[in-house]
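Cross-posted from the bioinformatics board.
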Amino acid sequence: MSGDKVKARTPEEAPADGTEVQETINVSLEKSEEAKLKARYPNLGHKPDMLRKRLQKGQKYFDSGDYNMAKANNKNKQLPTAAAPEKSEITGDHIPTPQDLPPRKPPLVASKLAG
Amino acid sequence: MAAPGGDMQWCFSQVKGAIDDDVAEADIISTVEFNHTGELLATGDKGGRVVIFQQEIENKSLPQFRSEYNVYSTFQSHEPEFDYLKSLEIEEKINKIRWLPQKNAAQFLLSTNDKTIKLWKISERDKRPDGYNLKEDDGRYKDPNSITSLRVPVLIPMDLMVEASPRRVFANAHTYHINSVSVNSDHETYLSADDLRVNLWHLEITDRSFNIVDIKPTNMEELTEVITAAEFHPHQCNTFVYSSSKGIIRLCDMRESALCDRHTKLFEEPEDPSNRSFFSEIISSISDVKFSHSGRYMMTRDYLSVKIWDLNMENRPVETYQVHEYLRSKLCSLYENDCIFDKFECCWNGNDSVVMTGSYNNFFRMFDRSQRRDVMLEASRENSKPMQVLKPRKVCAGGKRKKDEISVDSLDFNKKILHTAWHPQDNIIAVATTNNLYIFQDKVN
């Protein structure tokens, strides 16, 4: 394959000064990025918070009526332009009644990969 | 099989999916997988749909024979659900598809969302019965008094119909979100893993599942590590591995005990504690683990690198490849836009000589282990003329940018290649961008 020869570090090669220098550079890069982050967010959360957020991934709704309302409003939701997840889901502004809810099953759209 | 080594030249073959930039969430591709022969290629998306492509072999005697993948079957695998107890939505997004080895005329695959695994049977029908005695051709029942003779119905050819039907539903075994499914080499059992537990199933039994790993602490405040991926060994049916958010891989032997909470082997690369930064643990989180076809090695993907481990050596990987080292100076902004949590997958080629993984800006990387060479390529509509050779891409970390190089700051972090797959025998690869599936093949195929 064309391209540059890649440095694959293997244990047989004694770590040359090059590798150690690279690691020092890496560490200082990370630490300066960390300083940047801490400057912007002084109250940065700790590890267990991050993990627990991960376990609880998913939008919480008040109840199934609330969920179905939100689904009806977001039916043809496009990708948000920012990478950040959509945080402004519509829930809880209105008590749902059976008339407000969409018909039981929306038409299932075929995948565009199969088009 | 293509000759190992030698310069591989990748050419565009096909692209599937919509061209427009307006991407609906449901169209985001979430998994890509070849079956064991490479004849079938399955994709899953955020909308819970599965699309299967089949390879049509063109005339093999042509010097540059091209194999085209065309739609074979498509079906809705999972639908959105609402967990009433927790008031949480259960996404229909297909997290993983895994094919079963073929045993008869039908094909089987496992597809899973966050909570439920389903076994799908995909079968072909190309004949239909004709000449019923009691029914008309349109299905209406005849008046029995009008029947004066009997005939034997015959099977006549019909247009090929591919049907997908759910044969098993494996539900209610996971409190947390399923990240992996892996079929065992015994072809009878499979494992499913979520953030804290790994379960063992029998393909025939849906109402029972054995818990084989449980890392949930009694006090959730003490939670420090979650399971990120798990896979069975390709030949040893008693062996599986699971990776964690701390960059640790544990290998377990099911013969040792029923609950494999104690690992048989633990793979971790030592790190000098003084070198740790806020990002160290986050970027060490393993997003994918894959055994080599030989079963001797395993590959792990963390945020910035791909590591190859020899199963006989636990204290460090035998090879490490930097995928996009230039991102190290961008960790702060990657944390802010959540990209640092992106889960990239990785894959081996058929003879374990080359590994591949994705990156941002629709770039993907291949590392040739035997030749110590690597290349970065791009999946884009601009390079999509038939058999167009892909040009290597280069990212400039900073300073003087050479011609044809792209600066780190111009990379599009919304264009991520998280899912790639390599044909089990040939040099054909499937690369998924956000909503398109690219198929490339080696020119000397």
